[in-house]
Amino acid sequence: MLSDMEIARATKLKPIEEVGATLGIAPEELELYGRYKAKVSPAVWERVKGRPDGKLILVTAINPTPAGEGKTTTTVGLGQALARLGKRVAIALREPSLGPIFGVKGGATGGGYSQVVPMEDINLHFTGDIHAVTTAHNLLSALIDNHLQQGNALGLDPRRITWKRVLDMNDRALRHIVIGLGGRAQGVPREDGFDISVASEVMAILCLAGSLTELKERLSRIVVGYTYDGRPVTAGDLKAQGAMALLLKDALKPNLVQTLEHVPAFIHGGPFANIAHGCSSIQATRLGLKLCDYLVTEAGFGADLGAEKFFDIKCRVAGLKPSAAVIVATVRALKLHGGVPRGELTEENLAALEAGFQNLEKQVENVRLFGVPAVVAINRFPTDSDRELSLMAELCGRLNVPFALSEVWAKGGAGGLELAEKVLAACREPASFRFLYDEAASPKEKIETIARKVYGAARVEYTLEAERDLKDIHDQGLDRLLVCMAKTQYSLSDDPMLLGRPQGFTLTVREVRLSAGAGFIIPVTGQIMTMPGLPQHPAALDMDIDETGRITGLF
Pick the catalytic residue: 71, 309, 380, 501? Predict the structure, then answer.
């Protein structure tokens, strides 16, 4: 069986100008990064912004498991299948982060015969967007410490600086550090730390900004810390937003590549899905909707995290109205949710499959909360028995949700034709999209609405720290900000060990972080890691490059 890299290398790519031409993008409207990837000039948006939108299709999933679901692969394969049916289509994905690639998670370009290419370039630096985010973020960090060093005219309390530094690599040793040691010339000593770059508020802002002007305005609202008397200090107070926006001016432009079957693909932005909103950029999504009849995009992790944030945050900010949502699952992942140990997932187990189906059932309910028609895609594996697949069809029938087997990993677009037909039918249903909560509701009302309706929690509790955080947010007049929940992706609850569909549980909010520039608050539940570490055997140890530049070990 060929590896993803071998499949990608065997594909003859089209020059990116030809891919752009299928969307009506002229060669002079592309800024080339080699032959097969480009940034799209803002002039394209100005030319097409008056057109009606195409249909927006979201791909989401059950709560992820080590057994795998295949959300990105399904997104790519569905786009290819729609193209085979003669539809004018594009897809929109997030950019991969280097830390997980060299750690344990792998890339973010799909797999098998449903990939975006050039996969090596996309997974390794791509067009430098994440590096630009890293640099802009750390410029603000440097300006903060320089302000302390040069007299601290704003009265910024070094003990209450909330802005960490970032790095696009997994490095647990940098989570908690002390800086400014070595005497007066080396700065003001204080505690600090690093997050991974894609967890930066700058990344969230990049993906939510509709223009360079809006980008700069959002950057100015970033709260970096508090004064000795408790007043917030912003990036605007430090006059940092102009220089930060300058560093991000090219990163704001969407990137254009292609799938293995030459379907146009916008890959732009990569916010973490458990600490931020986990969606590709508004710029790419809006542009794709003007250029296509159908745009297929995805949101991070399961529907309880990614889809909720996509609907309540991204769609609200951008004025988007999704036409359908695909919920991806696998038989073996559902059996794991049903209590089967990882080593026994290839064995037929109808009872465990039916028990684990409750997780999929809840995610279907979650999508329907927003008035969006749902379609279930079962990413088929060779070990799935006929009886298990028949049970899946029966269970989906009980929910009155369309169901399709997907074989896009093995067959590309040809393996997704049934799914594509079901999605097209869903897109023809009357639109009734709605948000889950009112923007004017209090922070606790928003949090508790999500916890009860989406997660199935019986109650929400707040630590003393979370209560203090909410009071600070109220005192700053920021109660109307949206809510971006930080929660484990592995469970509907805040306990990653509670699989399936837990009920009657209490969701505990430990703290509430402020992302004023992004326009949301982040209630943190459970243990959320914003700087991952490397595993015992990092993927980096299996990677190499020879004297001809040929890469090995990258998936």
Answer: 71
pTM for the predicted model, two decimal places: 0.95
pLDDT at position 106: 67
Residue tagged active-site, from 126, 301, 370, 555 = 301
Q: Tell me which of 14, 47, 84, 105 is the catalytic residue.
A: 105
**The tokens of 332 are what?**
């073996």
SS3 389: helix
| 160-213 pLDDT per residue, tens | 999 999 999 999 999 999 999 999 999 999 999 999 999 999 999 999 999 999
pLDDT digits (tens, 9 = 90+) for 107-127: 789 999 999 999 999 999 999
357 is catalytic: no
Tokens of 355: 């028990």
Q: Bridge partners of 115?
A: 110
Residue ranges in the chain whose pLDDT is less than 50: none
Catalytic residue status for 65: no
The four Cα atoms 417, 422, 428, 434 give a dihedral, to 10 degrees, of: -120
Q: Catalytic site residue 381?
A: yes
Count of other CB atoms within 10 angstroms of residue 143: 17
Annotation says 273 is catalytic? yes
DSSP 8-state secondary structure symbol assigned to residue 27: G
What was the pLDDT predicted at 300? 87
| Annotation marks residue 433 as catalytic | no
Active-site position among 409, 505, 520, 555: 409
CA separation, residue 194 to residues 121, 172, 175, 278, 451 (Å)? 26, 9, 5, 20, 29
94 in active site: yes
Residue 363: exposure state from Cβ atoms within 10 A (0-12, 13-18, ≥19): buried
